[in-house]
Amino acid sequence: MNETLEGILKEVHQIRDQIKDVETLENFRVKFLGRKGLLANLADELKSLDDEKKKKFGYQFNLAKKEIESVYEELKQNLVQEPKVRFSFRHPGQKPLVGHLSPISLALNQAIKIFTNLGFKTILGSEIENEYYNFDALNIPADHPARDLWDTFWLDQKKEEEVDKKNQRSKKNKNKNTDRYLLRTHTSPSQVHYLEKNFPPFRIIIPGKVFRYEATDKTHEFEFHQLEGLAIGAGANLAELKGVLEKFFSEFYKKNLKIRLRPAYFPFVEPGLEFDVECIFCLNQKKKGCAICKQSGFIEIGGAGMVHPFVFKSVGLDSSKNYGYAFGLGLERIIMIRYKINDIRLFHSNDKRFIEQF
Fold first, then answer.
1. Dist. CA 333–CA 337, nearest whole Å
2. What pTM, to 2 d.p., does this model score?
3. 234 is catalytic
């Protein structure tokens, strides 16, 4: 048995210089130190010896095993040793990749800064809304087209009669506390929430993402961002509204721009208005060939108007003593005009060629 052990050690030292890669090293380990290797087989033979021979041969076996393990560790260290990194102080460094805000975030931050300087406070609302706040409180009746399944993302919910029975609601509060929920179609519900908890006067803006169940194309998306404003109190009239819009767009586009107001219908304002901004590309000179404003000199931007008495009534305020204006615009739209972007879908495409331009 001693001869066998000496033969194993001799073979170890003969092949150690031939091991040049990890695969050969693993074969070495399996052959000599593995569970079915040469040392393991020899250890099995030890069990059949008497106590005196087992004690004598066991000592030699342990010495040989430690020697083979030492050779294995030495080979392993040589093979896995990390290469030395050479560094030259004269070599120019590599600029680290640093992320940046998206064009939507950049524009939103700029808009918030402008409105803050105009005395508006920024508030945020929930993207999941109650049917009452999204429609009923804003003078949008149950038969309005926006209530249709194909215009709104309705959320799955229990049957209304089961919920009513469980909560034992009164008929008086049934509409306000309805359990029909949806992804908000506009930021206007936040107006109602704020009016319920705060007393005039105040001026606020409400930016956020909204959702519409519609097909996407170059000018339509099923999710986009709105920026809505609400001003209640003395002086909050159409003259101030026009002045606020002129100041905002002049600051946003870095040009002195005029605002044009046109009559329009929106359920939650009376009178309702659409506002156009002087074309930033031809500056109302109606230059031939300006495809942006179609030679009209103005670009349609959003809607506005004086808050409808129904909205004041829904939050318990007297419309004869309170008045104010509201306005709303699409954030992506004013960015598209600013940079002549022709497809709204680019904002959510994650295309680096588009994002890195900003």
1. 6
2. 0.66
3. no
